[in-house]
């Protein structure tokens, strides 16, 4: 009875805190008319958010923005006018912020309970990306897209170009996307052994926990800020909104992929047949590779390796650091959502994308 009482009390506390977050305006809602559903070959229905420009740039290719391993499309939009997606749309680009399987009302194949659990990096790569890119090309009539990926979203771009070819992607931007790993020096290392013991088909229900702790940020409780960003560059209200809205439930199988790559130092397919780090030389499309100098998850040397390895003749690497003239040493998350990002990061990425339209 005592255990039941504790569980009941915890549930009540969760409801109270989540409702507090709603009351304080942390919840971000998308208008229904900008939400699209995309069907994958294996039966998932993914959610895509369309930011349509009011004055489109004539002939511009559509821009797909893809989140990282523990995030959603809210990475690119945290309220009206806030984020890189509306920044691009307001300046003429047709923007599609995607959600990979397991996120933002994604629907697994009907009647297949196992499909709703245990997805991996290669499920994103071989199922989600082809469906999303084809959908955007068909919806816009564009022959190609420009892909902007944060963290794992950029790693997926590299792997896609290596394994699916470059016909559908004209150019790409990767932001805080590592291709080599040194997890033995990372706080993540302490969790690697534990996560490898959990059954791969399990799902960690992080979304409910995140919504519970987000309203505590104004009391100085900001879990994980130092790991995922520079606290000086992440405004409190941004951290609250991001935590409340963007963290999804997380597949243990995906975390095991990450843990395995951390031990091996590179990233590769589950069967070991394709090493995505070693195949970077197969990429020749124009690339902008962006990192933050204070990034503990994707330090500059882990992203610069991609710049050195790809065969692209047109490639640019930018480290956002105080030494390079920027306001902060950027971290992993604030490269997208930092207080200085709209005036330092967004314009640079926008200008590069604008300059790399088909002639």
Question: Which descriptors would you attach to this protein?
Answer:
359 residues; alpha/beta; Rossmann fold; 8-stranded mixed β-sheet; two-stranded antiparallel sheet; 10 strands
Overview of the structural elements:
The structure is a single chain. By secondary structure, the protein is α/β, with parallel strands linked by helices. The protein has a single domain, classed as Alpha/Beta hydrolase fold, catalytic domain (Rossmann fold, 3-Layer(aba) Sandwich), CATH 3.40.50. It contains twelve helices and ten strands. The chain has helices at 2-23, 84-90, 121-140, 152-164, 189-196, 206-213, 225-228, 236-246, 252-264, 300-309, 334-337, 341-355; strands at 35-39, 45-51, 63-66, 95-98, 145-150, 169-175, 203-204, 250-251, 287-292, 315-320. The strands form two sheets. Strands 1-2-4-3-5-6-9-10 form an eight-stranded mixed beta sheet, sandwiched between helices. It has a two-stranded antiparallel ribbon with strand order 7-8. α3 crosses α4. The longest helix is centred in the first third of the chain and has 22 residues, at 2-23. The protein is globular. It starts with a helix and ends with a helix.
């Amino acid at each position: 009875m005592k255990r039941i009482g504790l569980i009941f009390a915890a549930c009540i506390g969760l409801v109270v805190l989540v409702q507090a977050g709603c009351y304080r305006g942390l919840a971000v809602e998308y208008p229904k008319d900008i939400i699209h559903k995309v069907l994958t070959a294996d039966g998932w229905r993914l959610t895509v958010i369309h930011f349509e420009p009011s004055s489109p740039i004539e002939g511009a290719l559509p821009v797909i923005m893809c989140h990282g391993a523990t995030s959603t499309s809210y990475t690119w939009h945290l309220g009206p006018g806030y984020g890189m997606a509306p920044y691009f749309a307001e300046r003429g680009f047709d923007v599609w912020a995607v959600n990979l399987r397991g996120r933002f009302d994604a629907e697994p194949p009907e009647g297949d309970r196992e499909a709703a659990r245990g997805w991996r990096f290669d499920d994103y790569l071989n199922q989600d990306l082809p469906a999303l890119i084809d959908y955007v090309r068909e919806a816009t009539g564009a022959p190609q897209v420009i892909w902007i990926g944060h963290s794992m979203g950029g790693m997926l771009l590299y792997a896609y170009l290596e394994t699916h070819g470059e016909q559908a992607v004209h150019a790409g931007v990767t932001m805080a996307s590592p291709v080599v790993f040194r997890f033995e020096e990372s706080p993540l290392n302490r969790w690697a052994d534990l996560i490898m013991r959990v059954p791969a088909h399990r799902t960690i229900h992080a979304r409910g926990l995140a919504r519970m702790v987000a309203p505590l940020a104004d009391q100085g409780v900001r879990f994980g800020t130092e790991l995922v960003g520079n606290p000086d560059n992440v405004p409190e209200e941004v951290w609250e909104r991001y935590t409340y809205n963007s963290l999804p439930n997380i597949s243990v199988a995906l975390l095991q992929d990450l843990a395995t790559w951390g031990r091996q130092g590179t990233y590769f397919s589950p069967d070991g047949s394709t090493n995505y780090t070693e195949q970077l030389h197969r990429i020749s499309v124009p690339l902008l590779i962006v990192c933050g100098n204070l990034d503990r998850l994707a330090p500059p040397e882990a992203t610069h390796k991609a710049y050195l390895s790809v065969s692209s003749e047109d490639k640019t690497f930018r480290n956002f650091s105080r030494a390079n003239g920027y306001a902060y040493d950027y971290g992993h998350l604030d490269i997208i959502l930092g207080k200085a990002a709209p005036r330092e990061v967004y314009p640079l990425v926008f200008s590069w994308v604008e300059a790399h339209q088909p002639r």
